[in-house]
Amino acid sequence: MGIIIGQCGLCKNQKPLLESHLIPKSLYKIVVSKSLSMSPVLIKGGKENVFVKTSNQVKSHFLCCSCEGILSKHGENHVLGYTYRNASKFKMQEILKGMRPEFEMDNSLVFSGNKILKIKISHFVHFAAGVFWKASAGKWNFLRTKLSNNQLGKKYEKQFREFLLGVSQFPEKAVLTMSVSNEKEPFPIVILPQYYKYDGYFQHRFYIPGIEFILWVGNLVPESQKNISISHAAGGAFFFECSDNSPLIRETKGYLKNNVGKLRKVTKPA
Q1: DSSP code of 9?
Q2: pLDDT digits over 51-93, tens only?
Q3: For residue 2, is it within any domain?
C-alpha cells in the first residue's frame, strides 16, 4: 500500500498518515501468549461482542508520525513498562505491595497517587486519555465489524484532543481513576473502551493486563469522584483490588464462561 495522505486526527494537519493502533501493539503479544485457553482479545462493536484469539490488531490510518510520537513519549512508553507481563513481572503491583495504603474501602486498598514516587502519574493520565480519545474520534473496524465511536461526544473529544496536544488542561468535567489488580495472575485480556450511561454523566472503561482505567465525563459527575481523579494535582487515588470488583471484568468473564465454545480463532489478517 502506498503512502496515505489525509487529515491527522490529532493535529488536524494534512500529512502522511501512519497505521495507528487503538491499543499499543505490544500489549497484544502479552495477551496472546497467556492462558484462558483461547487467550482472547475482547472487541465490542456493532450488534454483538466478538472474542478472538488473534495477532491481528485494531488499527487505522489515523495519526501522523509527529502525533504518534506525542502519544508514545508522554504516555505509552512509560505505562507499558508497568503492566502485567507474567506471574513474576508486574511492576505496578510490586510497587504497591511495598507501600502502606491510605485506607481500605469496599475490599480495595487505596493509595495516594502523590506518594507513588516511582511512576510518572502524568504519563498514566496521558495514556488513558489517549486511548479513550482515539476510540471516540477514530474510525475503527475489526473483522468486518465497525466499532462504535464518538463515545465522548464532539465537545469532550475536542477537549481531550487539546489536552493530548498540551494546549489545555485535563477537561474540567472529567474524572479519571485507575485500578490495579492484586492477583498473582491477573485477567490476561485486552478490553477496548466501553461506556455506560448514567443520569447526567457517562462512565467509560478499558482494561489492559492488570490495570483498568475508568473515566467519568459529564456535568453531574459525583463530587465524591472528583478528589480521587489521578488527573488531580494531588495525584488522586490508586485502587489495589481483585479485578472481579470491576463490573466490566465480571461481565467479560461471564460472557467467556457461557460462550467459550463459540470463541473464534483468527490467524490471518482481517
Answers
A1: T
A2: 555 556 788 999 999 999 999 999 999 999 999 988 788 999 9
A3: no
Q: How many other CB atoms are found less than 10 A from the CB of residue 53?
A: 17
**For residue 32, what is the enclosing H or E element?**
helix 25-32
Sign of CA pseudo-dihedral 216, 247, 53, 184: positive
Name the residue range of residue 89's domain: 7-260
Query: How many beta carbons lie within 10 A of that of residue 97, not counting itself?
Result: 11
How many other CB atoms are found less than 10 A from the CB of residue 261? 6
- Tally the C-alpha atoms within 13 A of residue 155's C-alpha that lie toward its C-beta: 7
Q: Residue 112 contacts by C-beta under 8 Å, 6 or more apart in sequence?
A: 102, 234, 235, 237, 238
**Residue 267, domain member (yes or no):** no
User: What is the number of domains present in the chain?
Assistant: 1
Residue 269 lies in a domain: no
219 inside domain: yes
**pLDDT tens per residue across span 192-214:** 888 888 888 999 999 998 999 99
